[in-house]
Every structure is written in structure tokens, then in C-alpha cells.
Design goal:
154 residues; alpha/beta; two-stranded antiparallel ribbon; three-stranded parallel beta sheet
Length: 154
Amino acid sequence: YRTDPRVRLWKLHGGVDWYRNVGDSRIGKNGDPYHWDGGPKILLGGFNKILDYSGGIYLDMFINFRTALREANRIIVSGYGFHDKGINRLLLDWFYESTENKLCIVHKDPKGCLKNGRGAVKKLIGNPRVIELREWFGDASALEILRAIGDAKS
């Protein structure tokens, strides 16, 4: 169990405010002092994710995410619909690696998220190590989330 109080946030699919710099492979946010290619750099669908996971910033993030999973025994998921088989596999490998690992889903309908997800994530429905916080992330307090995952001090 880690006592490190840092929170790590992962945005593995990029974002609508991410752009590729013309002339090289740098990714930056809109408003940075570079000339961007005009289209957001976000991973959607199936085919481009497979290609983009194999290089650049996405490969770096994917590797760092996998490394961070090995050091964690609590994962809080919000804003993710469990539709990416690659990420699902990493999460499932992590979940089943240790009975100490707990997955907290912060969503108005956590079971619905898993039910509508792809692949084996459906098997997590009803697992006692899957913690369901039935509200939107923006409506949940940090203390509620910490209590849900069993890390609240008070």
C-alpha cells in the first residue's frame, strides 16, 4: 500500500484542446505559441487508437499509465465508458493482480458503464472490490471519494 498522497490524473485519449505542431510530432494545447495543424488531437474510434498508441505522446502516456497501475491499489475512474479494449485490458490485469486492488467508478450509473463497456469489464459487475459512487464526479467531494475507496482519515 502506498502512502504517497499524490493524485495522478490520466487523459489517455487526448483532448479537444490538444493539437499537433506542424513540422514535428509535438502535441500542445490550443493557445501555445506554436503553429498547430488545425484539428484536435483526440483518439476516437478503433483504428486510429491502435496506430497512435504505438508512438509519440500516446505511447509515452500508455507506458506511464501501466507503470502507475503497478504502484497503485486504488483506481478512481470517471469520464470513461470502458469502450477501449486496450485500456480495459490494463485495468483488468491490474484489478485481478491482487485482491487488495479496488476500482472506484464515479458515475451516476456505474453498473450501466460496465454493462455498456467492451469485453470482459462486464464481469466486474457485482464484484465487491468494485466501488460504486453513484454521482457525477463534479458533484462528488474529495472526502466522499476518499471514504468510498477507504482512504478517508476522518
